[in-house]
Amino acid sequence: MASKEFNVIAILHPKKGKTDIVLRQLNEVAEYVQKNEPGVLSYSINRSLRPSKDGEEEIIMLERYKDQAALKEHGSSQTFTAFNKKLAEQDLMRAPMVLKMGNAGHRLPMASLAAFAWKALSSPTPDPKTSTLPERIDPLDLFAGVRLCE
User: Fold this and answer.
1) Which member of 15, 18, 87, 144 has the lowest number of beta carbons within 10 Å of its beta carbon?
2) Which superkingdom is the protein from (predicted)?
3) Euclidean distance between CA atoms 134 and 150, whole angstroms
4) Is pLDDT of 123 > 90?
5) What's the chain look like in SS3?
6) What percent of the chain has pLDDT over 70?
7) Is 21 left (phi over 0), alpha (psi -120 to 50) or beta?
8) How far apart are CA 71 and CA 115, in angstroms?
9) Does domain 6-107 have CATH number 3.30.70.100?
10) What CA–CA distance (Å, rounded) separates 71 from 4?
């Protein structure tokens, strides 16, 4: 049976040279979340390992919530709302945030999850202006070399 936990992957696209500003603001949000939102089980901020050829970076958020209600509480918090307002007012983003959400399914052992995340985050991001994506990406390619059982 699937868990009630709710997972979010958020990908932020700061303008060139603005990544550190966005990261500082995200760390303020993370401090608030840690102290005030017990329904947030994990809130991980990750800087892309390989910027594009133009020096553009991504920030990848890996978030885990107790349930969908905890996600809604986080999304409507004054701190998170203020963060989004700052992003717009300070013109820090080059593209809209990409959100992927879903219920937690089978849990990988932590070491395997870390290896999977490392491989996924260290893969180069194709430049949409000069690259074409394959028609189909095999998710198993992401797991190549990752030990799934402990």
Assistant:
1) 144
2) Eukaryota
3) 32
4) no
5) CCCCCEEEEEEEEECCCCHHHHHHHHHHHHHHHHHHCCCEEEEEEEECCCCCCCCCCCEEEEEEECCHHHHHHHHCCHHHHHHHHHHHHCCCEEEEEEEEEEECCCCCCHHHHHHHHHHHHHCCCCCCCCCCCCCCCCHHHHCCCCCCCC
6) 67
7) alpha
8) 26
9) yes
10) 12
Give mean pLDDT, residues 121-148.
48
Query: Rounded mean pLDDT of the chain?
Result: 78
Q: Which residues contact 130 (CB under 8 A, 6 or more apart)?
A: none
3-state secondary structure 85-111: HHHHHCCCEEEEEEEEEEECCCCCCHH
Which residue spans of the chain are classified as CATH 3.30.70.100?
6-107
Decide if pLDDT at 104 tops 80: no
